[in-house]
Design a protein that fits this description.
The protein has one domain: 3-Layer(aba) Sandwich (Rossmann fold). Helices cover 30% and strands 27% of the residues. The chain contains six helices and seven strands; from the N terminus they run ααβαβαββαβαββ. The chain has a seven-stranded mixed beta sheet. The longest helix has 14 residues, at 64-77. It is globular and about 40 Å long.
Length: 192
């Protein structure tokens, strides 16, 4: 994950300076509720938006430079969000539970084995009835670099037992790829 930290010495293409539109829509529709964990939060735009909306928010990322930038933004905007340098494969060690977990671009960088570890950790930090919202590159996006493409079948396989998939919808991932908005999925997955 050292490459991700180095990417934050500049502005990586996924750091768009505002929250992802899908996260805004989820919040405005009331789907995101209660205490929120933002896994792979980057420089914190999604977390800070949700904090401004009144949510208790914790953002984690394994890239120290991203967390440093997120903390500075929170201070500058006078928003109360907690940011931690923390790996997404060790969620239980955070030591608390959440009502919602958001993921904007983390799942698609995990290996098959890491996905299983991640899903088990999610189940331990989400309260029963809590929901995980995943925004990931989809298999509809043509090859040509960038992250791994995810199929709906892979999402369903990872979140089989102990989860209810509410929906998987096609959308676009906002990023600065020369004006191109990659094809993505937004998924709502509830812990049962």
């Amino acid at each position: 994950m050292g490459w991700f930290n180095e990417a934050y010495r500049g502005t990586p293409p996924w750091d768009i300076g505002h929250p992802q539109g899908e996260i805004v829509r989820l919040a405005q529709s009331g789907e995101i509720r209660g205490a929120v964990l933002d896994v792979g939060c980057g420089t914190g735009e999604n977390s800070l938006f949700l904090a401004a909306e009144g949510h208790e928010v914790w953002g984690i990322d394994s890239a120290p430079l991203a967390i440093e930038k997120a903390r500075l933004k929170a201070k500058d905007r006078r928003l109360n969000a907690k940011f931690l340098v923390h790996g997404a494969l060790d969620l239980p060690s955070i030591g608390r539970k959440f009502d919602s977990v958001i993921d904007s671009g983390l799942f698609h960088v995990l290996s098959d084995e890491e996905r299983e570890v991640f899903a088990r950790g999610l189940a331990r930090v989400l309260r029963p009835g809590g929901t995980y919202f995943m925004l990931c590159f989809s298999d509809k996006e043509p090859d040509g670099g960038g992250p791994r493409r995810i199929t709906q079948a892979e999402i369903r396989q990872t979140f089989g037992g102990g989860w209810r998939i509410n929906y998987i919808r096609e959308t676009r991932f906002e990023a600065s790829f020369n004006g191109h908005l990659p094809m993505a999925y937004i998924a709502s997955i509830t812990r049962i």
